[in-house]
Design a protein that fits this description.
about 775 residues, mainly alpha, globular, repeat, Pumilio homolog 23, translation regulation
């Protein structure tokens, strides 16, 4: 308890110190530590101080005496530059000039590439030359490539050359010559990779070299990962990098990637403590690990070494020795290593992840969650939890700490925990209850829950929380809104307090929420949740009179569309009426034309009765669909608009979306839904025939069998039927199949009628 109190005070004291975003942040909560120019904290570890010494030594070793470019050579390249700037050269001439100019650089590549002015001309030449001269340039300067890459100007030249190689690889005929060139460069790089990895310029070049060996775009998320991308992955909004399909990648050089990665690991093993805490070295290792994702053999060899394990332990199959655990935990509080550890957890094979979870993280989750750097590692750990047993261990340590973590500003840990509970279907109800208890005491009304989470920091920073009020004009908490979006993806029985809270908000507050980007997403999440349509419309009704205003905002237009979807006929008409009033202004906005077309505003403005008729047709179509294929437990309610309670049906959302499109297409094309022509026209003929020949009972029997089969289908659970329909939709369209089926029945019926007529004539004869 004493230890936890100390951690709480430590975290609380730093909750306002958000970590600086360097474009590589892999988590939710920012946290600025006091950094020096090199990017490390002032309270540097021993390893950090060793690195500073190493860096100054390596810098003095790699610094070269810059030779002055020959005046005649400088004049020549200046003339070439002026020629290109004059735009008097066509494409074919440009390629020839670039190739000829590059031939003049032989033996002088280092001086020209590192010259501040002439380096720009070199970039132009490398972008415009053919593959032979480009590869010739790189092979000629291969020995000086590390020096060029670590130079302020030369690094741009080196990256331009690699990007040009990647572009030329679109032509398969150049594969062999490019492979030869890259092989020469990789052999030079692995002789001394540490200096290149720790250079602020060279690290970028090395990462580009790794990307081209893999066959990915150099400016892809392998090279630079946006925090929003990682955020979406951790909240289950997009597939993780490991699960994505990269079959569209261009042809790479897998053997070269393996050679480069293994060479880097081998040469840097003695300097691994330096790379663990170095900002730029960490970035190179992160890129390398991302590119190796899915290659378990290479990862099982590389990751233990990066954690500080010795080779003997790895060979024994015991990837992590207990004697390094405390060192690893301490390193996770360093900015550079915490970034690296996030990627390690993302790409680690299951066997290694399980061992890290048990040996390194168990009993240290709250300690790391309390730290301004370590909490990002815990977010990654939770987001990549493999099974419910691991979720149980996470819950034991962090479940009772929701309120403490939120007060320390570690809302990202809570968001990761909620998202993982949904992904693994574990502790879902407990997460909802714990979050409720963290922001609302047992004797308080649940109506405070949503407002307090929307203004998470504002509420927890308030000294007198019992008298906290809605802070008008304050931007809503980004992570708080994301947490609420995740909560509304739970089953309806788990989120009743949240539903009560959002539906009981005052009208002015609801409007303010919808005008905020994050708040609007919360409202949309509620409108697409499993809550009842009646409760959803209760919230939508509070926005009446403001739909026109909201539609003019890029974020509000999505909310208006969601409101229209859940509304009944009268509410939809009220929404479109408000849009008609601002139609001219709305059509000029970016999102306006789509919204006008989606809600059919033009038709309503010109022919309101026809608009209502079309809407009623859709209502009938959906009712027929759910009556035939929907679950018997989730029939459409009479007082609710169609699709107002869509989430109650057991259909898969993706299949349902396809079915909705199919229905809309049939309605717009004039083709009757569910083969109404087949159901109505054929029976009419049968009725007429039966009146002429009372003794004929074939039609009646067929209809009886058909109704019996239909009732039997309706009595079953809707999931199997909907799955079958989804499969039919994917192949040829389910409505077309029904049309053909009914048509065949009609033809059989006619043949039987003809047989009856023939037999009757014979009897009369």
């Amino acid at each position: 308890m004493v230890k936890e109190d100390a951690l709480y005070e430590q975290g609380k004291g730093k909750k306002g110190m958000n970590r600086k975003d360097r474009g590589e942040r892999h988590g939710f909560d920012g946290g600025n530590s006091k950094k020096t120019i090199s990017g490390r904290t002032n309270d540097q570890s021993v390893a950090g101080r060793k690195f500073s010494k190493h860096q100054s030594t390596s810098a003095s070793q790699t610094a070269h005496v810059r030779k002055q470019v020959d005046p005649e050579m400088a004049k020549y390249f200046s003339e070439v530059s002026n020629l290109f700037e004059s735009d008097g050269v066509d494409i074919e001439e440009r390629s020839v000039i670039c190739s000829n100019a590059l031939e003049e650089t032989r033996g002088k590549e280092l001086e020209l590439a590192t010259d501040y002015i002439l380096s720009h001309t070199m970039q132009t030449l490398l972008e415009g030359c053919d593959v032979d001269h480009l590869c010739g340039f790189l092979q000629s300067c291969a020995e000086d490539f590390p020096s060029i890459a670590m130079d302020r100007s030369g690094s741009h030249v080196a990256e331009t050359a690699i990007k040009s190689l990647a572009k030329l690889l679109e032509d398969n005929d150049v594969y062999s010559v490019v492979e030869e060139t890259l092989t020469i460069l990789c052999k030079v790089v692995v002789t001394n990779p540490v200096d290149l990895m720790c250079s602020c310029y060279g690290s970028h070049v090395l990462r580009s070299l790794l990307c081209i060996c893999k066959g990915v775009k150099i400016d892809s998320d392998f090279h630079v990962t946006k925090s929003s991308t990682v955020l979406a992955e951790r909240l289950n909004l997009t597939a993780s990098r490991v699960d994505r399909d990269y079959s569209h990648l261009q042809q790479g050089f897998p053997d070269l990637l393996k050679f480069l990665m293994s060479g880097m690991i081998k040469r840097t093993r003695k300097e691994i403590k330096t790379l663990q805490v170095d900002q730029f070295g960490s970035l190179v290792l992160q890129t390398a690990l991302k590119l190796l994702a899915g290659n378990d053999e290479e990862l099982l060899h590389a990751i233990p070494i990066l954690l500080g394990c010795n080779k003997e332990a790895i060979l024994e199959g015991n990837y992590i020795k207990m004697d390094i655990v405390r060192d690893v935990v301490k390193l996770m509080k360093e900015p550079a290593f915490s970034h690296l550890m996030e990627v390690i957890l993302e790409v680690a094979p299951e066997v290694l992840y399980n061992e890290m979870f048990t040996k390194v993280f168990k009993n240290s989750l709250f300690e790391l969650s309390s730290h301004h750097c370590g909490n990002f590692v815990i977010q990654a750990l939770i987001s990549h939890a493999r099974c419910q047993d691991q979720m149980e261990l996470i819950w034991e340590e962090l479940g009772p700490k929701f309120a403490v973590l939120l007060e320390m500003g570690r809302s990202g840990v809570i968001a990761s925990l909620i998202a993982s509970s949904q992904r693994l279907h574990s502790h879902e109800h407990k997460c909802c209850q714990a979050l409720t208890a963290a922001v609302c005491s047992a004797n308080e009304s649940p109506r405070f829950i949503v407002p307090r989470i929307l203004f998470l920091d504002n509420y927890f920073f308030c000294e007198d929380k019992s008298n906290w009020n809605w802070p008008s004009g304050v931007r809503m908490h980004v992570m708080g809104s994301l947490i609420l979006q995740a909560v509304f993806r739970y089953q309806s029985e788990y989120i009743q307090p949240y539903v009560t809270s959002i539906t009981s908000m005052e009208t002015d507050h609801v409007l303010e929420v919808v005008k905020d980007r994050g708040g609007a997403r919360v409202v949309e999440a509620f409108l697409t949740s499993n809550a009842s349509g009646k409760l959803k419309r209760r919230l939508v009704m509070k926005l009446r009179g403001h739909f026109g205003e909201l539609s003019m905002h890029s974020s509000g237009s999505f909310t208006v569309e969601k409101c229209f979807t859940v509304g009944n006929l009268s509410l939809r008409e009220a929404i479109v009426t408000e849009l008609v009033a601002v139609q001219s202004e709305l059509s000029k906005t970016k999102q306006g034309p789509y919204l006008i077309r989606k809600l059919d505003v033009d038709r309503f403005a010109a022919q309101p009765d026809q608009w209502r008729s079309k809407l009623a047709s859709k209502q009938t179509a959906y009712d027929e669909f759910y009556a035939t294929f929907g679950s018997g437990e989730a029939k459409p309610l009479k007082n609710e608009g169609f699709l107002a309670d869509i989430s109650k049906h057991s259909s898969h959302p993706k299949d349902l979306k396809e079915m909705r499109k199919e229905i809309d297409n049939h309605l717009s094309s004039g083709v009757p839904f569910l083969s109404t022509s087949g159901f109505k026209s054929k029976p009419k003929k049968a009725d007429q025939h039966s009146r002429k020949h009372p003794e004929t009972s074939v039609d009646y029997n067929i209809t009886q069998v058909k109704n019996k089969n239909l009732n039997k289908r309706k009595s079953h659970a809707g999931s199997d039927n909907v799955a079958a329909v989804g499969k039919m939709t994917e192949n040829v369209g389910w409505s077309k199949e029904l049309d053909q089926s009914v048509s065949k029945k009609g033809k059989k019926r006619e043949r039987k009628d003809a047989q009856l007529n023939t037999s009757k004539k014979k009897l009369k004869a």
